[in-house]
Amino acid sequence: MQQKCALIVDDEPDIRELLEITLGRMNINTRSAADLRSARLLLGEQAFDFCLTDMKLPDGNGIELVEHIQAEYPSTPVAMITAHGNMESAVEALKAGAFDFVSKPVNLDLLRHLVDTALKLESIGPQGTPGGEGNQLLGQSEVMENLRRQITKLARSQAPIYISGESGSGKELVARLIHDLGPHREAPFVPVNCGAIPSELMESEFFGHVKGSFSGASTDKEGLFQAANGGTLFLDEVADLPLAMQVKLLRGIQEKAIRPVGAQKEIPVDVRILSATHKDLAVELEKNNFRQDLYYRINVIELKVPSLRERQGDIPELANYLLRRVGKGYAQTPTTITPAAISALQQYHFPGNVRELENILERAFTLCEDNHIKPEDLSLSPSPRQATEAKPASMQQLEAADKASNVSFPAASQPASEDGDSLESYLEDIEKHVIVEALEATRWNKTAAAKKLGITFRALRYRLKKLGLE
């Protein structure tokens, strides 16, 4: 195996020597330069597997070298050495195309891990379509082709990425693909829903705690940062973090170190941060619900996931794939979807995006006859515009009069939570109760129970499985 070679660029001889010794012990050849001009000359003389450069150089700065390597030698990863606490320089380097950064004084364990990770990039090679069986990013539309290209490129970087997009558009899938295509693909991918953790447990969940640090802490507990060490921590719904926790999270990201609750010392961690939310972070910033400094740390690069409305041409491929997945485990003739039903889906507004499409097809799968899904099986709700147009004239007149008189017209009741979790749970309880009553009345004869409920045997079987009653 050919020995790797790294370029070290720093104007301080002592630091150059320390870095050369450290990499030499990793069996890596090194060449060093004290300024930009010398570094450019060395790059022109031979190929390097990796470059480590200081930010401040006598004839310029490391950003210029990052940009030069990005333009002339794009397959060579570059890491930046920044002054302690100078995250602005680190963010600037990452935006310019740096693979990662390390702060002075250099933590040698973190440096060795960084170098190992950078050298793994070569083994990744050119990527094809991101996504494998059960983890697919489907669709041939231009916006999806562009998204796949961006994912492949961003997988080679350690830059924090903010994944924006509507609910149900596939933000976690995109985060997982960035991880799977990168050098940390063998390390843990740890997703966490920031809105689902009680605020009083949040610090312990993220950073862990030591035994006896608070009432009930009977043993040491590893936090999410430690669980994701060497890999990726995906912060879903990051906008739901309380402000006090945002401060602590910011420190963990900046220092690449965390302190468990009750511990005396910080623990170094090497974690790539990916984050997402369906909210508009810029708006949350204006409302003072989100810290500006944390916003700029996690939003080094923004990656937008398109809504399903932006790629309606992908719906036939998505629908057929999801239908095959829903039908797995049912020994029967495969269920198909008619062209008319596909057309109806392509005209639908999909506020819940791909997740909603999957739910619609699951429901249609249980309701359709003769294994063919027709438009009426989809039970699509009208778009807001269609709903307004479909209202009786008298209703529209009443609402117009209501607005003109500034009197509040009673609105339809809404579910307790934004995503309708409470309503869905309530309806599931009712459904369970009705199904159990029918089964008990027929002595658990499923065929008879289905007939009593007025649904097909297959629909009953599906509902039993979904509701955990089998």
Structure explained in plain terms:
By secondary structure, the protein is α/β, with parallel strands linked by helices. 46% of the residues lie in helices and 14% in strands. The protein has helices spanning 13-24, 36-45, 62-72, 87-96, 108-124, 142-154, 171-180, 202-207, 224-227, 243-255, 281-286, 292-298, 315-327, 339-346, 353-367, 375-378, 384-390, 393-405, 421-441, 446-453, 457-466, and strands at 5-9, 29-33, 50-54, 56-57, 60-61, 78-82, 100-103, 131-132, 135-136, 161-164, 189-193, 232-236, 257-258, 267-268, 272-277, 301-304, 336-337, 372-373. Strands 2-1-3-6-7 form a 5-stranded parallel beta sheet, with helices on both faces. Strands 11-12-15-10-16 form a 5-stranded parallel beta sheet. It has a two-stranded antiparallel sheet with strand order 4-5. α2 runs parallel beside α3, α13 packs across α15 (353-367) and α19 (421-441) crosses α20. The longest helix has 21 residues, at 421-441. It is elongated.
